[in-house]
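For the sake of clarity, the format in which proteins appear in this thesis is described at this point. The record quoted next illustrates the convention:

___
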Amino acid sequence: MARQYDGLGSHLFGGSSMVSFMVRPSGEQTQAAYDKATKACSQSPKGILCRIEGPAELTVQTKGGEAKGDAAAGESAEVELQKAAILCRDL
């Protein structure tokens, strides 16, 4: 699932600032795994919040580049965009 967020920079300086979050299942590719990945990210009052349970792959993309991370089976994490900061926490 990909979510886009217009960041603080676009509000202060004009133009556009975009961050994209995409969660995909890794390992067994079932419809249930895709459904779970689709619901992993949501808009929060402070930005975007993704709750990931492995096995899954998270891709965060900005205009400056792309970062990928994997959660193995049994691992879980939260990735949150707050204003211009991306925060990651193991759960």
Observations:
- The CA atoms of residues 31 and 87 lie 29 Å apart.
- Residues 1-12 have pLDDT under 50 and may be disordered.
- The beta strands are 2-6, 18-25, 41-44, 47-53, 56-62, 65-71, 76-82, 85-90.
